[in-house]
Amino acid sequence: MQSRRAVQIPEYMLDKFTQGDLARKFVEKWHLNVAERDSLEMGSLAGTLIVVEICALLEKHGWYPIDWRPDHGFDGGLIERFENGHCQVHWKVEVGVQRFALQEIKAFDSTSDAIRDYALRFFGPDFDGIVIDWMRMR
Q1: pLDDT confidence of residue 136
Q2: List of residues 6+ apart from 37 with CB closer than 8 A
Q3: Helix ranges (DSSP H) in the chain
Q4: Structure pTM?
Q5: Please, which of 49, 86, 99, 131 could form a disulfide with 44 given CB 3.0 to 4.6 Å?
Q6: Which pLDDT does position 4 carry in this prediction?
């Protein structure tokens, strides 16, 4: 039986990633590499940081994910932010091979409410093996 060794992070890489940097990369790429995962405080990503980073993207681009639009084929959710801060979240599901149907559109009076609803549903308690702590405040 092979033994598993813990991954050794070189000294120069320690403290390289802030928790905000990790949350930003996670909401943009939906993935963190091994060194980044090892840098997570308490082994999880604070859900509040996910909300903050998605909010920044929405304020800049008006959409999250930034390259998706309602007429595109996708399985999941898409947040659309309006100038007044109100949002709509478009949810689609795959109904056949590369065929997608609108499941629902939810309206929100605030950007933060839309993001929380979206993130809890889309990312859940863990995503790609990354635990998301929705109770931890940062």
Answers
A1: 73
A2: 129, 130
A3: 19-29, 34-38, 47-61, 111-122
A4: 0.84
A5: 131
A6: 53
